[in-house]
Amino acid sequence: MDKREFIRISIAGATGALFVPRILMAGMVEPALKTKLAGGVYETDVAFGRWNKKIAGLHLAEAAKHGHELHVVSHHPMPGYNHYIVKHQLLDANFNFITEHRYNPTKDKTPETSFNIKDHKGLLYVITMCNIHDVWINATEV
To answer: N or C: fewer beta carbons within 10 Å in the chain?
Structure first.
């Protein structure tokens, strides 16, 4: 490779490095529930991957706003450490971590909690993690 070819390739690579992150970030603006990751990396109400609609109904968190609190519940049985909801997490619209609640299946009979959301407005993602059925994501507006 001669000097001119090396410079041309270097400039092309540097230019690409400036624009590729913007292109990737533009794709992240699309809600997480509709990306190609849904049904593979995580599950949603319509993209439940290798699971089925019944499993989705047990794992997807329902969220209801009550004042400055967001009440989150999954209708999943908690029969002990064999099969349980590990935690619920809240992420903002930019996928920044807000808070989480971990469950103890020997003490918690229902995976539900209330999160203080007084400093948050707009779209929030509610993540449910099951020790067997992977990670589930739902969204809510506050």
So the answer is: N
pLDDT, tens digit, for every residue of 70-91? 999 999 999 999 999 999 999 9
pLDDT in tens, 14-65: 444 444 444 344 444 357 788 888 999 899 999 999 999 999 999 999 999 9
On whether the CB atoms of residues 99 and 110 are closer than 8 A, the answer is: no
Q: How far apart are alpha carbons 28 and 35 in whole angstroms? A: 8
Measured distance CA(96)–CA(82) in Å, rounded: 30
What does the DSSP 8-state code read for residue 53? H
């490095």: which residue's tokens? Answer: 17
List the structure tokens of 18: 């400036």
Conformation bin of residue 80: beta by default, left when phi > 0, alpha when psi is -120 to 50: left
Q: What angle do CA 137, 26, 127 make, to 5 degrees?
A: 10
